[in-house]
Amino acid sequence: MIKQTLGEWQSEMKRIFNSSDEVAFVCPACGRISTIKDHVDAGGVADDAPRGCIGRTNKKGSSNGKDQGFGCNWAAYGLLGTLGKGRTIVFPDGHESEVFDFAPAEVLSNA
To answer: CA-to-CA distance for 86 and 81, rounded, in angstroms?
Structure first.
């Protein structure tokens, strides 16, 4: 699992994605890729995207960690975090938080 400061994480995000709407994350449980825009369009906020599957935001996600067309309800702040498939962000105050990993840029460019 990658561990980085908030600044490093934000710099990587800006390097990979052209705009904040395009920033996409991979759910560690079901593998669903969703963008910040997807979460906002589903009634959530931008901060939902790196910490929860789109199924949690749209309230249609499965509870078994499987994507049945809507995502699942997995959250990085749950008991099992990101299942070792995400990142740990270190905030300026020293607090650490798990977040989902970025979606590979090549996957998004082929969408």
So the answer is: 8
- What's the first-to-final CA gap in the chain, in angstroms? 26
Q: Is 16 exposed, middle or buried (0-12, 13-18, 19+ CB in 10 A)?
A: middle
pLDDT for the residue 81: 94
pLDDT for 14: 92
Q: What is the 3-state secondary structure (H, E, C) of the chain?
A: CEEEEHHHHHHHHHHHCCCHHHCEEECCCCCCEEEHHHHHHCCCCHHHCCCECHHHHHCCCECCCCCCCCCECCECCCCCCCCCCCEEEECCCCCEEEECEECCHHHHHCC
Q: Are 46 and 20 in contact (CB under 8 A)?
A: yes
The pLDDT, as a whole number, for residue 83 is: 94
pLDDT score for 106: 64
Cβ neighbors of 1 (< 8 A, separation 6 or more) are 82, 84, 85, 86, 87, 88
